[in-house]
Amino acid sequence: MKLSNKTKELFERAHKLQPDLKHEEVVSLWEYNLDREAPRGLTDGFVLITDSTLTVYENGEIALCEPMTNVKEFRFQSGVGCVFAEYVNQSGESFLISRASSSHKTRIATAIKAANHYLLFGSHAFEKYFPAANVCPKCGRAYRQGSETCLNCIDTKRAAKRLWGVAKPYKWLIFASMALFVFISLLGLITPILTEHLTDEFILSETPDQISPLMYLVVIGNILLVQLASRGLSSVRNWTLVIAGNKVVHRLRGIVFDKIQRLSIARISKRTAGELMNRVSQDTSRIRMFIVNQIPRLLEQLLLFLVVGIAFFIYDWRLALLVVLPTPLIALAFSLFRGIMGKLFRRSWERSAQSNAVLHDIFSGIRVVKSYGTEKRESKRFEDYALAEKNTQLKIETKWAYINPLLQFLISFGEFFILFYAGNAILGGEMTLGEMSKFSSYAGMLYTPLQFLAGFPRQLMMAKTSITKVFEIIDEPEDIKDADNAQDIQIKGAVSLKNVTFGYDESVDVLRNINLEIKPGEFIGLVGKSGTGKSTLINLVMRMYDVDEGSVSIDGVDIRDISQESLRSQIGVVLQETFLFNGSIYQNIAYAKKDATREEVIAAAKAAGAHSFIIRLTDGYDTWVGEKGNNLSGGEKQRIAIARALLHNPKLLILDEATASLDTETEKQIQESLAKLSHERTTIAIAHRLSTLRNATRLVVLDKGRIVEIGTHDELIEKHGIYYNLVMAQREMSKMA
Amino acid sequence: MTPMMMGGPGGPRGGRPGGFGGPGGPGGRKPVKENPNSVQISKDNAKFMMKNGFLFMACPKDAEPCRVHLHRDFPFDNPWSYISVLSTDNTELAFMQSVDLFDGEDKELIVRELERKYYTPSIKKILSVKDRFGFSYWDVETESGKVTFTLQDTFKSISRAGDNKLFFSDVDGNRFVIEDVEALDRKSHKKIELYL
């Protein structure tokens, strides 16, 4: 048996507690850390379940011992911040087994599943529930189901390395810009030499009559040439920078956008649209600035500092010392302020994200705001956030305003020394005026890098915040991936669910042991009270989530082995809430099939009962529908969505309360047109209005996550079960109306 | 079964379940059934007791006791008022305006049960906070010793209740609380300042 280290550890503990324990007798085992009674008490607890007994040890003593023949079921329960385990005996009475902090949640939930598996099937399923790979090798914690990343030990690779990965395809462009940066600064070194020459040999010449005008022109011309070359090369450098920058940001945006698209619904819905937009547009731009502007400049400036510094030392080491004297002080100041500024920038980012999110929230809900007349309150809410953002920004700017002049002063402090030293040297005749002008130019060059470095922490922090945000998205694990050998299949429409168990959270099963065989062409109606798992079942068939246990297959192929693109392109979905993209009605219907002809679109619209109202619109199919299709009624939008779903003639059609917002007359129309087509396709429909499902070949009634009744309308009415009650309740309602 | 923990980022699937199902999507939250017969309880008409490690309620007092779960309706703002008493299948059996409507052993049991279900160690000192790539790693001292925990999306994992009370929900679903952030020592306060 291949076990994780943590599980091996548990076994060792079990052996210590029960020396004669045999490995194969163990059904399940777990540790727990909270006292069962005292709310805040800690304990060292251990639960061991074998073929024969359930034993609970607390601080080394046996706290509970129960023969397995008395146990009917183990149960897991979430508290808040803690989890409970209990067992039910043969007479249905429950007993508390353990209480543990939520860190133990996954492990205990799994252990209980293993124990129940044994009670249900009489066979051990240790490997299934305690697989070696299910635990983080670093910290020994169990992974969350469907995830292979340990959130506690997530690999946070160095930012630089990650960024390089993004910039790598354009490395030659970036190298070229860097080389140009360096070359241009080296050119800058020549000018002071020429100026020195000009000053000492020509301007301050002691024998002015001997100066050859030609030589003078040559020197002047050289200065001009250097300037020209430097400006020209700068243009080229700017050009390479723009190209490299845009390519980097384009690629980065592509990566982030693709990643967001690949994430599962569960993960995407954790973030607001505004937040995601921020990351795709703003943060990537900042990263571009950093990669193509800041980094090459940093290298350039460092190099310049080095070269000028060395030159300085060769010319006059005492002078050089004077110039570099303030540097340690500056370095100290940098490291001090970096921390402060970093925190402030991080907070500023959060604040601006918050106020953007509020803005987005208010505008999306503008109808509600208007209808409740709460404009003033919302203005206030936004103002508060804007104020918080302003205050943080102000804090940054004022801090910067204090810090920056101080740093600048420190940096240029050395220039006073030069003036003093050089002045003395000239008066003493040891230095010429030309030399002094050269030195002070060089000193300026030495200080430019330092000044740049003073501003660099700010850039670095801004970039780092953005990098963090972007990589947070990029690093988000994908829960639903295509298998390596995922195949494209032509769906015929047979859907089969075998022993399907699923929960959005590992501790609560929303669907339990679902078995359902749907034949091609069947119309299945899913019925049940809200919260019984109908939508969840549909989500599983579309593979929005992966099942925890059992399998969903289409035409006999497990959907985890079908490529997601192939699967979803052959499923038509209409949800209760529709979304119309910015575009014409035609574009919205044709969304489902890129190469649809006008005839096909019209046919689909007719089948969906949308054609008649579309042709009454002035612009017909070219009518522009806004972001939410605000100029259409709910029913009209719904019919467009149905047309969209019908357009690519899916072999599997899923209707989740699709016709709920339509009046019964229109619904009937659509039902009929759907019925005409339905022999060619499998339909799974959820509806609370049971009349919607009158054409269903079979009705599946769900209750508390289990299938409780299956049959035709007549069969189920005869049965006088849950369906019968639902029908009767609705009849009562319609009588009242 | 108790309703799921409220909100909080939780694990990959935690946080906001339901997703695709639109407003009808129930997600991982088990619906609490509306019960028109839910009664207001106080020491006059209800009695609590422990059995097999669970809380039982008799209401009216001479009725057969049944196992119940206590659920805070406003866990952040009003932890000791507005308590729903749920049956094991999540129907609200009774409603407790405040734990103060009970006294003696009953009140003791209720308070203990709430504290037992809402396990929220109180943070006394923040030793270190490391922020890396959207995750933050916290080293803290709670009333029951040193604890390390991880927050994903730090700002969203810290909820504010009132002016100075902070609730933390870590990646595993553990809860922590800082009762009064202003009462923290200066060093600790400096470490959390950024997230306020």
Could you please describe the fold and organization of this structure?
The complex is a heterodimer of chains A (737) and B (196). Chain A is of the alpha+beta class and 737 residues long. Chain A is extended. With 196 residues, chain B is mostly beta strands. Chain B has helices at residues 104-117, 154-157, 186-193, and strands at 39-40, 47-51, 54-58, 66-67, 69-72, 81-86, 92-98, 123-132, 135-142, 145-152, 158-161, 165-169, 175-178. Mean pLDDT of chain B is 81; it is low at 1-28. Chain B is built from three helices and 13 strands; from the N terminus they run βββββββαβββαβββα. The interface between A and B is large, with 74 and 62 residues.
Oligomeric nature of the chains: heterodimer
Binned strand content of chain B: 35-45%
Unreliable runs of chain A: none
Q: Structural class, from helix and strand content of chain A?
A: alpha+beta
**Nearest-angstrom radius of gyration of chain B?**
19 Å
> What Rg of chain A do the Cα atoms give?
37 Å
**What is the total tally of β strands of chain A?**
19
| Through-space gap between termini of chain B | 35 Å
